[in-house]
Each structure stands twice: as C-alpha cells, then as structure tokens.
Design a protein that fits this description.
Elements: E1 8-11, H1 17-27, E2 31-36, E3 50-51, E4 54-55, H2 56-59, E5 66-70, H3 75-85, E6 90-93, H4 99-103, H5 107-111, E7 118-123, H6 138-144, H7 147-150, H8 165-188, E8 192-197, H9 198-203, H10 207-216, E9 233-237, E10 242-246, H11 250-260, H12 275-280, H13 282-293, H14 298-308, E11 312-314, H15 318-323, H16 325-329, E12 333-338, E13 342-347, H17 371-377, H18 382-390, E14 394-395
Parallel strand pairs: 1-2, 1-6, 2-5, 6-7, 7-8
Antiparallel strand pairs: 3-4, 5-14, 9-10, 10-11, 12-13
Amino acid sequence: MKPLDGFRVLDLTRFLSGPYCTMVLAELGADVVKVEQPGTGDDSRRLAPKVNGESYPFGMPNRSKRSVSLDLKDERGRAAFHRMAARADLVIENFRPGVVKRLGIDHESLREVNDSLLYCSISGFGQTGPYRDRPGFDIMAQGAVGFLRMTGHPDGRPAKVGIAINDIAAGATAIYSILAAELNRRATGEGDYIDISLVDAGLAWTVWESGAYFGSGEEPAPTGTRHRRSTPYQAYRTADGYVTIGANNDRLWRRLVVDGLERPHWLEDERFATLTARMEHIDELQEEIEEVTATRTTAEWIKILDRAGVPGGPVLTYAEALADPHILARGMIGNVEHPIIGPMQTIAPPAKFSSLEFDIQGPAPWLGQHTTDVLADAGLTEDEIEALYADSVAFDEHPDMQGR
C-alpha cells in the first residue's frame, strides 16, 4: 500500500512545474488524471526528440499518469470535468491567473460540487501582486530572482542555471504544500487553495544568499564554481579535466595541504593561514592549487583526496554521470515500456524508503488514452461519452489501440 492510494488528482498542468509535482504524487500512489486539450494536449508533447511520433521529453515528467482529453471551452466538456471534480481530492493547474475563472473551473466554481476539494495553482508570479498577469516561464523567474546575475563566471554575460531550477522549485514546493494540505484535510475535513509561484519558490531557495544580503547588504555575484563564503571549494584543473575539492574548514584544509597536495608550508603562508586570508587571496590560491593539480589526472586526484579524507570528485558530462557505476548501483536509471515508443529509460525516484513503496508506475499516456474509462468512472453513460467523441469534445489519439 502506498501513502496516497485512493487520492484522486485532476492535473491541468503543462510543461514542467506542475507535471513534475503530479509525477511524484502519482508515484506515491495518487491516481493522477492528466486533462488535456483535444488534438494538441500538453505543449511539451511537441518537444523533440520523438519516437514513433511521441515526445520522449514529455514522457519523463508525465509517466505514471492517465490522460483524458476534453475541450474545456465547450460547455459539455466543462460539465464532464465538473463531474470528475466532484469525485476528486485535488485539482492542480498552471495557467495564467484568470484563465480557469473564465473557463468556469476555478476553485470557487468547483467548491460548489466538492466543498472539501484541494486546489493548487502554479504560475510565474502568483495570483496576487502587480505582476500577477505576466506570463512567466522558468527563464523569466530566474531573471526575476537574481539567478541570472549570480550564475556563471565573473564579468560574463548573465547565465541561467543548467536545469529549469525555478520550475522544479515550484513543483517541489507544490508537492510538500499539497501533502500538508491533505494532512490538514484528513484531520479537519476542510479543503484548501494553494497559490504557488515560480518566483517565490526560487527565491525561497536563496538561503545563504539572503543571509549575506540581510546581514551586510552583500549581493551575490557570479563566482564560477567557487563557494561564496569558503575556499578551497571549487573545481580545479587537472591533467585531463577538472576535479572538485571541498576543503572548506580548517581540519580539511590541513588534510588537503599536508596529505593531499603535499604543500605543508601553506599552513604558515600568511596568504592562506586562515579562512579570511584564503578568501582575500582566492585567485592566488587557485593558481597555486592548479599548479599542483595539473600534474595528475582527475582519477589520480580522486584517489589521493580519498586517502587524505578530503571531499573531492570528478566534473562529469551528463552522459558520463548517467553511466557512472554509483548512479547505476543506486538504481537511478529506470525502465518503462511505452505502448507506442517501446522501451524507455527514465530517471527513477530519488528517495529510498525502508518499507514504503515509491517507484515508477508506468509510462506516460498517449493523448486521451484513458478518456473513456475516466468519463465512465465519473458517471457518464456510454451514449454521453460517444456523443462527446462524435462532436470532438472528447478525444483519443489512438482509438484503434483501445478496442473501443
């Protein structure tokens, strides 16, 4: 049994923030029904590469779910959605503020059919504030919270974080917020409305940066791979690439210079004798360290650092990371069988529980794959469902594969 068994979710989200959230909920046991526009579906279905016409990137955050395709702009599609919502525990959407109100599927409208419903909205800037009506993707949110100005190398152009960090931050924030609201609902019977923004979620992760700013007015600037408060803590050049070194306290610093780099005289060098001195002479420290690290390969340095008890590691490409024996041993590469794509690889859930089941439940659905089943579960008759198909209010991209 899973912790969210029996928890029914209607997922109106697209792209990444919401789908990431609902993927996790699904793999914790929730029945997640992805509700998509006929013919097009989630915008991320357009993303390449495609295999047999199905988007591989779409398949990553949308696995373990079912898909219903309904035209919510049509009164009959909206009525069918209301009947689904009457039996749901959560509705989640990431439209621009105001869209669900115009469609008649907002929190207030759905409370009329389900007064204990949980409802979560994810948007770029939130449901309130002067920027609420602005469209906002991850890149806008990274710019709005300062990430583009604190990432990359000094004197370089603004740089984004290598992944869609604000999207994932918003999705993760939505996950724990929904779980908290559900715990409260189970205790009180009361539903709730949750307002998540990409900007707020990303800003909440600036923990040390906010401490430095509120404490001394320091604004975080790009530092490459360097730590803002400590050194040595960065990637250093080796004979064949880079090695990361994290000797960020006096105990580790001593181990590094004595047992690792074999430069014990640095302990007495006034430029490096204290953390304050090392931060003031960080450029010189990098030059001195790289004169040593450039003499051996990354693999050699990792062995030396391990023996010295100093944290260190390689700087891998993504392909190298996915092939790393530790990643494989941890079971982080999952496999699913998609009915159209065929065998697929994906990133498995990261948490390892001693007894709780948390795993991939199945592949992402094709557009409208479960439309008939879900509408029937909501109480629509066979004739009503067929009429919705006939008028293109309901949609199944591959009815020939259903035996419908």
